[in-house]
Amino acid sequence: MRDCPRLFIPPAHIAPMAVDAVFDLEPGQAHYLGTVMRQQAGAVVEVFNARDGAWQGVIEHLRRDRCRIRVVEQARAPAATPGLCLVFAPLKRDATETVIRMGTELGVTRFRPVVTERTNTHRINADRLSSIATEATEQCERLDVPTIDALAPLTTVLSQWPDDTALFAALERMPQAVAAPAPHVGCGVLIGPEGGFSPREHEMLCRQAFVRPLSLGALVLRADTAAAAALALVGSGLKALCGKTS
């Protein structure tokens, strides 16, 4: 069903999906199908969420901002995904949106934006970022849409971090290589702002037992590039581990 549109349906909006179940889309989704994708009644779509998995559906009625979907059959069962949290300092608008998009594609399940001593952006548009995460989820064929927390100080996030969950911190010019995350626990990745962490923050991070320095090589990367590189490294470890323990 890769050629048909994919639509995320929040579990809170509908009853559990089943064969022949019928539900109405949100007006924005109906407009997207009819105006942007040029779909008509009888067309096949894929509807999904983490609770129900992915299901094939048929458009029964479509007019302007109204669309009714009838569920036909399940295409993919729901599956548990390893928790992967990205803690990051917000960047300029385009760069922050890139981090959300790439992070979603690379398996992030929770975004935690933080304020550091060198953070230049102290506001985020949560609705806009949530929309980008949803669009990226639909595009990359995953089932769950990552959550986006409210902006918080780095010290607050560290004080709340579980001791049994590794937080891989991308610190400049650190020699340590990435280690595999612990089974079934998940992990986090920490990316600093443009200009990196301050000396005080660097020292604070190195004192935390759950923080593991993560080397991204000898070159100094842009913050959004560093996020993608770190997630690729840590995410590969999680996937390999899940493959061994499944």
Q: Short description, anyone?
A:
The protein has 246 residues and is an alpha/beta fold. The chain contains 6 helices and 12 strands. The strands form 2 sheets. Strands 6, 7, 8, 9, 10, 11 and 12 form a 7-stranded parallel beta sheet that branches. A 5-stranded mixed beta sheet has the order 1-3-4-5-2.
Question: If you had to describe this structure to a student in words, what would you say it looks like?
Answer:
Residues about 240-245 have low confidence and may be disordered. Strand 7, helix 3 (about 125-140) and strand 8 form a beta-alpha-beta unit. This protein has helices spanning about 25-35, 95-105, 125-140, 155-160, 200-205, 225-245, and strands at about 5-10, 20-25, 45-50, 55-65, 65-75, 85-90, 110-115, 145-150, 150-155, 165-170, 185-190, 210-215. The protein folds into 2 domains: about 5-75, Ribosomal Protein L25, Chain P (Beta Barrel); about 85-245, 3-Layer(aba) Sandwich (Alpha/beta knot), CATH 3.40.1280. It is built from 6 helices and 12 strands. Helix 2 (about 95-105) runs parallel beside helix 6 (about 225-245). The protein is elongated and about 60 Å long. It has about 250 residues and is α/β, with parallel strands linked by helices. The strands form 2 sheets. Strands 6, 7, 8, 9, 10, 11 and 12 form a 7-stranded parallel beta sheet that branches. InterPro entries: Alpha/beta_knot_MTases (IPR029028), PUA-like_sf (IPR015947), RsmE (IPR006700), RsmE_MTase_dom (IPR046886), RsmE_PUA-like (IPR046887), tRNA_m1G_MTases_N (IPR029026). It is an enzyme of class 2 (transferase). One of its GO terms (molecular function) is rRNA (uridine-N3-)-methyltransferase activity. This is Ribosomal RNA small subunit methyltransferase E. It is found in: Cytoplasm.
